[in-house]
Structures are given as C-alpha cells and as structure tokens.
Amino acid sequence: QLAGLAVIAFGLWLRFGGVMADFASEKKSPEYFFMGLYVLVGAGALMTTVGFFGCCGAARESQCLIGAFFACLLVIFAAEVTAGVFAFIGKKVAVQEAQKIYEDVYDDYMKNPGGKVNSTIYRYHLALQCCGKGNMEQQMGLPCPENIQKVSNCLVEIQNIIDADLHLVGIVGIAIAGITIFGMIFSMVLCCAIRNTRDMI
C-alpha cells in the first residue's frame, strides 16, 4: 500500500510539479510522455487497492484472498516489465514531441516577437534554464532569463530532462518490482502455512 501511494505521488509530481509540467499549459503537450505518467499513477492506485485486499486476506487467513493477492501481484509485475520496455522504446518519441513543441513556439516567436508567444517562450527558457537552439545568432533578441550562468541549447536540455525523469522512473520501477517479488514470495509462504495449519487441525 505504501509503495502504491509512493508511486502515485511520484507520478503526480512528475506530471504537475516537474519542469515538463510547463509543456502541458499550452494547446500542445508531449502526450507520449504524459501518457506514461498516467499509466504510472494508475499502477500505483492498483497497487494500493491490491495491498489493502492482501492485508484483509492475511488478517482473515483466507487462502482465496491471498491467492488472489498473489495473482494480482503477478499481473502488476508483468505490467511493470511491459511498461519498462515500452518506456525504453518510446523515449525517443517523447523527446521528439517535447522538442517539436519548443521549436513551434520558437518559430512563432520569430514570426511575431511579442504578445503571448513572448511570455510562452520565456517561460520555457526559465523552466529549462536555456536560451534558443544553439548558436549565438539564434539567441539574439530572444527573451532569455537574466540569471542563467551558462547559456545552453534548449533542445539538448529537453532531452536531458526527459532522460533524467525516465531514469528516476526506472529506479522507482525497479524498487517496486523488487517489493512485488517479495510480496509474491511472502504471500505464497503465508498461503502454504495457512493450508498446513488447517491440515494439522
């Protein structure tokens, strides 16, 4: 249950509290990246629910509930492995989506440097701590934050941020997978112990 709540909190933080949350405030958003976070939150909710039923099964010493708990953990484990492979394969697509959003805003600003686009591109620069798409000529006239110590390429920063976020997701996924394996082992041990106790009686 605690692991499920931690996964939910982590997924919501990446969606609404991280740097990538700024990309969701416009009409376009990196749907592929956010879709993965929604799946993560859903998996956390499922884990919390399954954990509750596992506690009920252990408290009532019900082989049926504990067996169902084991089956649910097995499904969650398989889903985690599938999601990990899916995230690894789809990382490039998520990076391209986010970079395309920035490039569209950049092009809109170059066509009409003012108004709402000005504030949008500045917010991206502030969140990513970057300015422009690389060379000094492309940075001239752009609304860049004054406190940037090293001016960097925004497209590179987007890739770095998504890589870092997916790295965190991978660490959390491995930790949860380990907890899931222990849960399956202990549930089977408990189920066998309950059956042996009843056979002795």
Automatic annotation (TrEMBL):
**Species:** Pluvianellus socialis
Which InterPro entries does the annotation name? Tetraspanin/Peripherin, Tetraspanin_animals, Tetraspanin_EC2_sf
Q: Mind listing the UniProt keywords for this protein, alphabetically?
A: Membrane, Signal, Transmembrane, Transmembrane helix
SUPFAM superfamilies hit by this protein: Tetraspanin
Q: Which domain of life is it from?
A: Eukaryota
Per the record, membrane topology reads: Multi-pass membrane protein
Alphabetical list of Pfam families matching this protein: Tetraspanin
Where does the sequence pass through the membrane? 37-59, 66-89, 168-194
Q: Which family does it belong to?
A: Belongs to the tetraspanin (TM4SF) family.
- One cellular component term from this protein's GO annotations in UniProt: plasma membrane
Where is it mainly found? Answer: membrane
Q: What is this protein called?
A: Tetraspanin
Subcellular location per the Swiss-Prot or TrEMBL entry: Membrane
Look up the signal peptide feature and give its range: 1-21
